[in-house]
Amino acid sequence: MIEVNHLYKTFEDKEVLHDISACFENGQTNLIIGQSGSGKTVLMKNLVGLLDPTSGKVLYDGRDFTAMSKNEKVRLRREMGMIFQGAALFDSLSVLENVMFPLDMFSSMNYRERVRRAQECLDRVGLIDAQEKFPGELSGGMQKRVAIARAIVLNPQYLFCDEPNSGLDPKTSLVIDELLSGITKEYNTTTIINTHDMNSVMGIGEHIIFIYQGKKEWEGNKDMVISSNNERLNDLVFASDLFKKVKQVEETGHEG
Fold first, then answer.
1. Which of the chain's termini has less CB crowding within 10 Å, N or C?
2. Model's pTM, two decimal places?
3. Distance (Å, rounded) from C-alpha 124 to C-alpha 115?
4. Distance (Å, rounded) from C-alpha 122 to C-alpha 137?
5. Which pLDDT value is given to residue 193?
6. What is the pLDDT of residues 51-70, one digit of tens each?
7. Binning pLDDT at 50, 70 and 90, where does residue 245 land?
8. Is 70 exceeded by the pLDDT of residue 131?
């Protein structure tokens, strides 16, 4: 579980995050949503330590991340897996070598054990047959799945995903969503996903934080989104005709 208590972040004289408090539970897909510039990426960077809050606390199962020494933060980061907006794979390494990279850096396993563990993770994302290929030979969706395999290879307790469906078609995005949701349940991770994808919100949004102009505007789950009276949330989620129809059916019981 990750707790955020009264988090503020200011750059010079510009306040980007204002009094954010939230609790992200284990075994759930926790989504952070908001328009571009809302502060959700800054929030995630504060969660993983890429930025330091101006004030407030970030607690990892009761451990105050913001008060830790540099070495303590390094040790905690070994419990984190991260999936970036671009897959961020090493072009010169094979798929297997990409997934093995965190093991090479941080594990005490011997080479055979590292290979076996990396292959287990590739099998989990359905890419065991691609282990000898290089990233340039893969589709965007396959690259994201390799990135997921790499992110879970150290059995992380906390999994962070920054726009995992960016640049993917809807069908591939669904595959990625189902994979992240399944892994979250299987490993009982605390999974936090920054996303613009409203299909993800309605598909796997077990816990959703809506950020508007640096403030937590709304909090709930995918079922509560449909019945929400928050106009700013509705403007974001129901921008497409499809979701407008879903909202209309919910409110009236029939299509217009």
1. C
2. 0.87
3. 14
4. 16
5. 95
6. 999 999 999 999 999 999 99
7. low
8. yes
CA distance 176 to 179: 5
- As a residue count, the chain comes to 256
Task: Give the list of residues 6+ apart from residue 28 with CB closer than 8 angstroms, or none.
Answer: 184, 190, 191, 206, 207
Contacts of 238 (CB under 8 A, 6+ apart): 244, 246, 247
Residue with tokens 């009761």: 62
Tell me the C-alpha distance between 128 and 146, whole Å: 10
